[in-house]
Amino acid sequence: KRLILSAQIKKVFELVGFQFAGNVVWDKGHIEGKRGFNSGNLSPFFQHPFNCWEHILIFSKGEVKSKFKNIFPTILKAQAVVKMVKGKNVYGHTAPYPIAIPELLIKHLDADDVVLDPYAGSFTTSIVAEKYGVNSIGIEKNSEYFQLGKERLTSEIKQLRLI
Question: What is the pTM of this model?
Fold first, then answer.
C-alpha cells in the first residue's frame, strides 16, 4: 500500500516549526523500472503506480523570505540519474537525483544561509551547496549511504578547489 508521504512530511515539518515554501513536481520524463505491469494481479485495469514524477517539498525555518516566493517552477523537467548499467547499480545509491533539484533553491541563497537535507543519501544537496558557497547540513542514518555521500562530498570539494 502507498502512503501519501508528502502530506505526512508537510505536517511533521510544520509541527516542528518549519514553514512550507513550495512544492515542485519533478518530471523524470520516463517510467522507471517495470512498474507499469500488474505483478500478477488479474483484476481488470490493475496497474502499479508509475514512478515518472516525484514531489519536491521546500520548507523554511521561520517566515519564507520574500525573495523565495514564486521563484520555484511548478514542474521541473530533469532526467533521472542513470544508476543501473547491465543490471548493476554503478552509482552506489538506490535513489540518486540530479543536481538540478537542489540548485532550484541553493542558487538563490546567501552565503550565511544553511540548507538542511534530512535524507542526505549520496549528499547531492551538500555538493551543490558547496559549489555555490552555501552552508549545508546533511543527515543520513544509513551508514553505507553516509560513507558514499562523504566520499562524494570530499571528492567534489577537492575538485572545486582545483578550479
Answer: 0.75
